[in-house]
Amino acid sequence: MGAPPVISTAGLTKHYGNVHALTDLTVDVGPGVTGLVGANGAGKSTLIKILLGLIEPTGGRAQVLGHDIDAASQEIRRLVGYMPEHDCLPPDVSASDFVVHMARMSGLGHAAARERAADVLRHVGLDEERYRPMGGYSTGMKQRAKLAQALAHDPRLVFLDEPTNGLDPAARNDMLRLVGRIGSEFGIAVLVTSHLLGELEQVSDHVIVLDGGRLLRSSATGDFLRRTGGLLVEVVGTETERDRLGEALAQRGLVCRPRGTMVAIDPPAPELATEGVAHDLIRDVAADLGLGLMRLEPDRGHLEDVFLEGGAHV
Amino acid sequence: MSESTTPGTGRSGVIHDLGYRRYDGPREGTGAIARTLFLTGLRHAYGLERSGKSKVMPFLLLGMSLLPAAIIVGVVVLTGLRSLPVTYAGYTSQTQLLVSLFAAAQAPVLFSRDLRHRSIVLYAARPLSSAAFGFVRWLSMSVALLAFMVIPTLLMFVGALLAGLDKSDQLSDLYKAVVLQVFLAALVAGITGLVSSVSLRRGFAVVGSVMVLIVLTGVVTAVQNIAQSQGSDSVSVGAGLFSPWSLYSGLGNAWDAGTRVPVSVDGAWVPAYVLVLLLVAAGCVLGLVARFRKVGSR
Ligand SMILES: Nc1ncnc2c1ncn2[C@@H]1O[C@H](COP(=O)(O)OP(=O)(O)OP(=O)(O)O)[C@@H](O)[C@H]1O
Ligand SMILES: [Mg+2]
């Protein structure tokens, strides 16, 4: 610790008439990967655009890489990269040409831009297809090209707005792994948004949760897991089996709820919270009932849970 | 537990060349970035560095506007005429349909594409603001248009010198033509730029520009001619304020640059023509800059 924050906001507010996109947001973002989580309309994109100087806040202050967003937004835009959430690629240009051009628009000379474009396109995994017009790309390839242009000028911080949007599970994992590498291996600070907490906790060092434009929570990813602390169990069979297990576990003092085909177990009471005790208990109960255990894992924490929990705190 | 690698190892330890490389080289200021953007826009206006198909329209139109000039040069050189059959400024006016079509067809390339595909947001997130982006686009379009008019003009000028026509006469004519072309280019780039930045579908943008540059000019010319034949000279001159080409011809007439108008423009009409031209051009530039600023923040 002790390093100055990469981003720091104080009372940041953005109201569109009656729509409160962001309200009194005070939060710090450090190096590494920071997840910005919130439901649709929570204010994630609004925050990023304010930090980039694309829209003006209604109130409050913010600094990015030590520069004030009011006074030095041009300097900020020189040092950061931005991957927007929506489509932003001209279809008749190849990724290679486009990334070179975008690197030049960030101030790199011709030769440097070419070299950087080749480098980042390789890092994001666009190979032969980089020479084809982007109009023919799959969603996964488009997301990679969008990411490449954000990295083209070797920024010190990137804003990635829903980089996994529209990706299938395999492509999603690839993208998340890449985001993790950008933060650790590349040494570029990352602010990445998603509406799924479970997705970001895999790669984030820190998670910020927004709800209706307000800060719900900001903490290290580890704290999130500890606070969530619940378990998910799935047994072979139908809802009948699921409910039999749930009832039996409830009798043994665990607080359970059905969630889809699974039983979600709240963080166990202190006497059961010791490492492994709850696990053993669940295994025993399932064995007693003659139920086949398909899955027993930590509850990766659903956003709704954070909201419920957070709501209680506020 | 998110990562097993310790942060920072990729930066220092160069184990193999596949790792991420930082860029420590120079970074240009906004002036140099704007110049790069300007030159790219200028090339794109002629379809250069774009698909082969994109080059067809601009170069076809340029070729067509050069053809009469080449014929004029041939005739003057071969027959030994003592003067060009048309002035430089007059030539631009007579090929106005081609100039207008070039502007209408190419403005969407510079002003619609980045808004339609939303790549403007990627520019807006870079040092040059989206407002500056719009302004630089207008500069590119203005210079592309100016080149479109100047190239045939220069061809005729070179031909005139080859034919041994009086150099100082030709130079003074050329000077007037180029000054008028600069003003016209700024105005037409502003109009077609604004139209194209508002109507993002290429078809609508082209039609919109054609309406202003060709249809409106036709209407104004008709009104001017009718008014003149009815003896209402001031109505005829006043109507000339309402289209880019009648402004151009009117100013060319007032300056004795050899453009044709139904009723000569003189007296207080001259500053009025200059003022209207500058105000409309400036208004269009402000309008399109505001448009780019707005879309860039969405
Ligand atoms: N230009 C605008 N005018 C009016 N309201 C706006 C504008 N831009 C955003 N909003 C509103 O502000 C709120 C926050 O929007 P924002 O795009 O920041 O949410 P988000 O967290 O990025 O959501 P999503 O997950 O859907 O991308 C929303 O209610 C949205 O409708
Ligand atoms: Mg968003």
Automatic annotation (TrEMBL), chain A:
Residues 7-237 form the ABC transporter domain. This is ABC transporter ATP-binding protein. PANTHER family: ABC TRANSPORTER, ATP-BINDING PROTEIN. Gene3D superfamilies: P-loop containing nucleotide triphosphate hydrolases. SMART domains: AAA (SM00382). Belongs to the ABC transporter superfamily. Keywords: ATP-binding, Nucleotide-binding, Transport. Signal peptide: none annotated. The keyword NAD does not apply. One of its GO terms (molecular function) is ATP binding.
TrEMBL record, chain B:
This is ABC transporter permease. It comes from Nocardioides hwasunensis. The keyword Transmembrane applies. Keywords: Membrane, Transmembrane, Transmembrane helix. The chain crosses the membrane at residues 59-81, 145-165, 177-198, 204-223, 267-290.
